[in-house]
TrEMBL record:
Name of the featured protein: Stress responsive A/B Barrel Domain
Domain of life: Bacteria
Residues making up the signal peptide according to the UniProt record: 1-21
Presence of the UniProt keyword Signal in the record: yes
Keyword Oxidoreductase annotated: no
Alphabetical UniProt keywords: Signal
Chain ranges of the Stress-response A/B barrel domain: 31-122
Length: 124
């Protein structure tokens, strides 16, 4: 059953990536950036909270980052613990998020915090 769920999830990711690649220059659409995380065993809770707080503050710090939603999905997923959904008004806003020093801090923390992760981006 776990293999079937994993294969289904992988298929969903491939479909989403194919749809994203097929989209050219969306006009009124927004970029949805989804991170699905499995935390490392014995994760440092203080560092985890720091990373989640950094994510939550992006709408205040990055122009065009409209929304950040974070949810615990441990009860609905065999492998993943947390989902982070971010909404950007444009590609430029997403690029500003990636260039932001707080994003750099999250990237630096990742090896200490994350066992595995998946990312899906789409325009809607």
């Amino acid at each position: 059953m776990k293999i079937l769920k994993t294969l289904s999830f992988c298929l969903l990711l491939v479909i989403c990536q194919a749809q994203l690649a097929a989209q050219e220059h969306p006009t009124a659409e927004k970029l949805h950036h989804i991170l699905i995380i499995q935390w490392a065993d014995g994760v440092d809770l203080k560092l985890k909270e720091e990373a989640l707080t950094l994510f939550q503050r992006f709408p205040e710090k990055v122009d065009g980052c409209e929304e950040v939603s974070i949810a615990d999905i441990t009860l609905s997923s065999d492998d993943f613990d947390t989902i982070i959904i971010m909404v950007f008004e444009s590609q430029a806003a997403y690029d500003a998020y990636e260039a932001h020093p707080d994003h750099g801090r999250i990237v630096a923390l990742r090896p200490k915090l994350v066992k595995s992760a998946s990312i899906v981006d789409y325009w809607k």
